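residues and backbone:
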Amino acid sequence: MRHSRLYPEPPQLELAVFHEATPEERLLAEVCARLGAAGAVPTGYLEVIPEDLPFERPTDVGAEAEEIRVPAERVRAHLAGEVPGRRVLRAGFELRPLGLVVAGYNRGAAGRHPVALLTSAEAIESGWAGRRRGRAERVASAVRGLMRDVCEATGPLYASLGVETTLPGPERLAGAGGRLGDVFVADRLLARVSGLAGRLDGCFAAGHSEKWSGGTYYSSWGPFNDAGTTVRDPDLPARSGRLLGDAVARFARGS
């Protein structure tokens, strides 16, 4: 069930990260901590489930999920797992100029879910003309900064930033045939998979790439990179998704 207090208005912008070693509940708490450092304020609305309930997709939990509201100062305790019997599936925040930002899990294997931040992309999608341009630029700048901060602070194996995209866990990344947004790729993945850096450089040759602490960020859409570079290639998101999916599968096999 979609709850309006925990469901940003579409189209949705997703910033998602996957870490192969950090427990997903701790990763969710760390990502939410970066939201707080950026100035986000908890709304107090949480979606919680029994702490031992397994799921692949968050929608699998069905009636086991419960939306609750707690004092804002108690949100951190819930995220830290200090409430016996329950774990947080989604948490709501308000962050200027983005508005509602919802943190939660994407589809993945049990215990290995990517953590995603969702917010409305309406300002970026439709706001580049006339008086709306200023807001669009502020939103885009905030998103770029948040993407970099989250990646550098949490050290994910891979991450994605896009509109109406969904970053899956490694078990589905290679075969999903999905379209990724702009991507962050960790140095440890680039080092493990021979030739990956060169293939990504070629894939994003007409776009923009930059070195961040712990990895490289590859972008093909101007609002999401400081150079303002946009690639007019509708197939690039699918190609980059296949390339990253294959690399992550090889990383998991140790090859």
